[in-house]
């Protein structure tokens, strides 16, 4: 965090804590706002947002601050977190946009439809909040986020696996454009707490999840001093996401085919073995549509090597050519005749005595 922001927050938090008056901190923000550049103005708006939350919506920030029936998961997203993401990633900058409200990745939808092609009721992951790189009509997820009301909400547990797969799809979609080492972010939100993690494809079929930042928003005036650390983590997160957006921007206008499964392997070496990072990808397991059994994706564990395929074919045809099943003595029925693969003789009659 810059010196100006650090000093400003120290002055704001000290004034509010000493006076026990949120309005005093807001007044200081308004006094210095016009002298700041556009970026710092957004950060001051974020300071303002935090102060307003403590003043107006403390029940959304405190555990057991209100009865569960008094507010919803959507309230936590709409009131607390959506403004923060919008201030970190304002529209018309770095080709990044923020989408909220259980939106669906177009690419995930296409790939789930491929897996359950015989079903008409296919809906991919509904994601609470997404930060998307968008250019020339193409959307690539950079951040996927899920929201629960508090850490006692069972949705926190179910969200973890879902969010991991959502972010894995984001990594795969980024790789289709940059074809090099890439990562995507996940944000698991529980009330006023947020865990930001990265996911990266580091080896053949190996997707690594790594927690990066964990922080909580201040829930009362007494906790304002701790927001400096949370703000630093938010700014670091912002810069990493912008870096990914810049990489995608430089990648150019390579066309991504929606009908191409993540498991399709386009690049291989001269021996046919998968060596490109594109070939490290795996298909995603999607929850089945209603009244459908779960299906294992086509390329969940990787493609067999060309050597393995050759050995399997050799074994198959040594045991039974063209579907002929031979017994332990080499006899098998082939085209209504009995053939012995040991002697390569063929005869009309059954070779064994009838009992």
Structural class: alpha+beta
Adjacency order of strands in the biggest sheet = 1-2-3-4-5-6
Taking pLDDT < 50 over at least 5 consecutive residues as the criterion, the unreliable ranges are 255-274
Series of secondary-structure elements, N-terminal to C-terminal: HHHHHEHEEHEEEHHEEE
Strand content: 15-25%
- Outline: elongated
Number of strands: 9
Distinct helical segment count:
9
Structure, explained:
- By secondary structure, the chain is of the alpha+beta class.
- The protein has 9 helices and 9 strands.
- The protein has a 6-stranded mixed β-sheet, with helices on both faces. It has a 3-stranded antiparallel β-sheet with strand order 7-8-9, with no helix packed on it.
- A hairpin with a 4-residue loop joins strand 8 and strand 9 (345-347).
- The longest helix is centred in the middle third of the chain and has 24 residues, at 155-178.
- The termini are far apart.
- The model is unreliable at 255-274 (pLDDT under 50).
Give a nutshell description of this structure:
The protein contains 9 helices and 9 strands. The protein has 355 residues and is an alpha+beta fold.
Q: What descriptive keywords fit this protein?
A:
alpha+beta, three-stranded antiparallel sheet, 9 helices, 9 strands
């Amino acid at each position: 965090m810059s010196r100006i922001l650090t000093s400003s927050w120290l002055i704001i938090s000290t004034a509010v804590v000493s006076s026990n008056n949120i309005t005093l901190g807001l007044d200081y923000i308004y006094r210095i706002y016009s002298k700041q550049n556009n970026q710092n103005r957004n950060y001051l708006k974020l300071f303002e947002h935090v102060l307003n939350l403590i003043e107006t919506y403390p029940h959304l920030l405190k555990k057991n601050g209100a009865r569960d029936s008094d507010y919803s998961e959507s309230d936590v997203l709409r009131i607390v977190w959506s403004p923060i993401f919008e201030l970190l990633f304002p529209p018309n900058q770095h080709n990044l946009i923020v989408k909220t409200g259980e939106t669906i990745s177009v690419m995930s939808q296409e790939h789930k439809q491929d897996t359950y092609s015989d079903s008409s009721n296919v809906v991919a992951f509904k994601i609470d909040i997404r930060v998307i790189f968008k250019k020339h009509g193409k959307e690539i997820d950079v951040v996927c986020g899920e929201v629960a009301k508090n850490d006692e909400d069972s949705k926190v547990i179910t969200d973890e696996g879902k969010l991991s797969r959502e972010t894995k799809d984001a990594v795969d979609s980024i790789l289709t454009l940059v074809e090099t080492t890439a990562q995507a972010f996940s944000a698991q939100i529980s009330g006023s707490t947020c865990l930001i993690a990265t996911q990266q494809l580091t080896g053949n079929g190996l997707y690594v999840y790594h927690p990066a930042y964990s922080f909580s928003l201040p829930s009362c005036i007494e906790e304002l001093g701790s927001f400096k650390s949370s703000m630093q983590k938010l700014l670091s997160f912002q810069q990493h996401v912008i870096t990914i957006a810049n990489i995608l921007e430089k990648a150019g206008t390579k066309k991504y085919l929606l009908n191409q499964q993540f498991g399709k392997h386009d690049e291989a070496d001269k021996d046919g073995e998968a060596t490109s990072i594109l070939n490290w990808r795996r298909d995603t397991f999607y929850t089945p549509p209603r009244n459908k059994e779960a299906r294992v994706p086509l390329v969940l564990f990787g493609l067999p090597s060309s050597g393995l395929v050759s050995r399997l074919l050799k074994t198959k045809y040594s045991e039974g050519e063209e579907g002929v099943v031979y017994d332990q003595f080499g006899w098998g029925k082939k085209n209504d005749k009995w053939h012995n693969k040991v002697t390569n003789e063929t005869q009309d009659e059954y070779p064994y005595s009838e009992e």
